[in-house]
Write a structure and sequence with these properties.
Strand content of chain B: under 5%
Structural class of chain B: mainly alpha
Mean pLDDT of chain A: 90
Structural class of chain A: mainly alpha
Number of strands of chain B: 0
Strand content of chain A: under 5%
Largest sheet of chain A: none
Largest sheet of chain B: none
Low-confidence stretches of chain B: 1-9
Helix content of chain A: over 70%
Radius of gyration of chain B: 18 Å
Oligomer: heterodimer
Order of helices and strands of chain A: HH
Shape of chain B: globular
């Protein structure tokens, strides 16, 4: 249905606006990463990606 | 300043306040997740149409963006939060009904549910024990959100399964980042309002669950 697509597009545009506001605020105010911070975050995200791959294998 | 020194030298009053916010956040999160489960069951028993998901999502978004921030400092905020999570649960019921009709539906739902729980508990435990401050990820996470939302907008019109899969995978990684970021902000005193903290964590859990459902549905060959 076209009107459902329009409704979803409006919702996504609202989300885009909120994300843009968040991006602007956090770009100006977020603390700087210290040594090892990015590695710690990426390690956790890699673990999540590996876990999702495991879940996919379980349902196949 | 060294963050380990900050953690050790944190004044006792501030540490108590942080623990209180953390405890209240997890208690309210449990209650709202339970309430969502109830409204999802209600929605499934009524047999709502898939359109219900979109409508309740939009209503919850409007409440979350415009009403919750204005009421979060009063007891009315708790009511608004339950209204939002109840609406999201009600919409989720319509989606779950669709998945239950698939041959592997119950297995996909159970796997997505368990997987979401493991991801949330694992990341929260990691953020609580690592002592690192993940607040630096704010700009990166919101930039990622913008990219994902633009991709979702494009896929509304192109409807490509591969793009849909990529968006779901992106959402899972972004929401995982948000769990680290939000938990870290609570621990380090960046978020002192437990209603807003609960809302952020709830949205991350909800989005991970929905995206896992979509990925598992597509990859199982049933969707």
């Amino acid at each position: 249905m076209d009107w459902m697509k329009i409704l979803a597009a409006v919702a996504l545009l609202m989300m885009l606006f909120v994300s843009w506001r968040g991006f602007k605020w956090w770009s100006a105010n977020s603390p700087k990463a210290e040594k090892g911070d990015w590695n710690s975050a990426l390690l956790a995200l890699a673990a999540v990606a590996a876990f999702v791959a495991l879940l996919i294998m379980m349902v196949r | 300043m060294n963050r380990f020194e900050t953690a050790v030298a944190q004044p006792r009053g501030m540490a108590t306040e942080t623990n209180k916010v953390l405890k209240n956040t997890y208690m309210l999160l449990s209650a709202t997740l339970g309430f969502s489960a109830l409204t999802a069951m209600l929605s499934m028993s009524i047999g709502t149409s898939p359109m219900t998901y979109l409508l309740s999502l939009i209503a919850a978004m409007v409440l979350g963006m415009f009403v919750l921030p204005r009421t979060a400092n009063s007891s009315a905020g708790i009511g608004v939060l339950f209204l939002i999570t109840g609406l999201l649960g009600f919409g989720l019921g319509a989606v779950l009904s669709i998945y239950l009709a698939l041959p592997k539906g119950p297995e996909i739902i159970a796997t997505a549910f368990g997987g979401t729980g493991v991801i949330f508990l694992g990341l929260s435990g990691y953020a609580l024990t690592t002592k690192r401050n993940f607040s630096f990820m704010g700009g990166f996470l919101f930039a990622g959100m913008m990219v994902v939302v633009i991709a979702m907008l494009a896929n509304l019109f192109f409807a490509l399964p591969a793009l849909s899969l990529a968006v779901s995978a992106g959402i899972i990684l972004l929401m995982s980042g948000f769990i680290l970021f939000d938990t870290s902000r609570i621990i380090h005193g960046g978020e002192t309002n437990y209603i807003m903290a609960t809302f952020s964590l709830y949205m991350s859990i909800f989005n991970i669950f929905i995206s896992l459902l979509q990925i598992l549905g597509l990859m199982s060959g049933d969707d």
